[in-house]
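User: Okay, second chain of the day. Same drill as before: sequence in, structure tokens out.
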Amino acid sequence: MATITMVSSTTLAVTSCGNNNTGSSFYDTDYNKAFGMVFSNEKNTNFSMLPTLAKKQTTEPPKNVDTNNKVDQLELVGSNLKIDCDNFVCTDDNSFTGSEISKKEYNTTDNDRVLIQYALDDLGKWFSIEPDASTEVFYDFSNLTMNINYANNNYYFNKYSKKDEPEELILWSQQNSLTIRSENKTFDNNLSFFDKEISLNTELINKLLESNSVIVNDSDLVVTFNNVEQQKVWEKVVMVQDLFDKYQSDLRFEENKNPTYSNSRTFTSLNLKPFIIESKTIKNIKVITEFKDQGGVN
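Assistant: Same drill. Structure tokens below.
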């Protein structure tokens, strides 16, 4: 069986019948939408980089979970977001089969049409599936199957473009256990996906950090943690750094000096790269930790 090996994030090496063919991609692709067109599971649910999973039956409802919002399936683990497999079933509905893509579907009216077409073309190239399969069908992917281990997926928020201008931070995913097969080839490398329809906002920040977050003066994101044990204050700052790590890995904070006794401590970002939340350009992040007891610190 041939194996498709990722040489770099934009280069694939396809090994088939003893021949090595390497091709490079220097264009943006939307694998999330493209794979959603191609692959569906036995429940006829289309693939999505962030699936809608069933909630596990427990005697007590899981904390902070809104079953109508699939983003609430995520939790912050280190500097990655992971699907909360303690509260959601991550082992079902993860096998998909391919389908035919008609010429009308290939020429979608989606705003990201070109990115989707590039992704479909990539899938065709990986498995030597030629376009124009028939008068009505552009690609026939019906001989492909795909399996995913949702527990291994990493999610994070980052800008879409590489421009210096402030942008919203959208949801990205590194699919670390995605395998696509045909009769004689296998693709089992990491792929990056994005979803422009899911962007970071204060509601999401509050859910992921268990905080109270507001935007002040149209430019300051203020993240407040209540009932914090004094020895765990810096852990809260690190959580904020972790949430923004994929956007800015060198984000630093400095504590605001308070000459009097206080029941809270405040930290302000020193080098934040501006970004947009809820139509506001955020230029600073402030982290406020309010202590569990009334004893203050100098």
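The chain has two domains: 2-199, 210-291.

User: Thanks, on to the next one.
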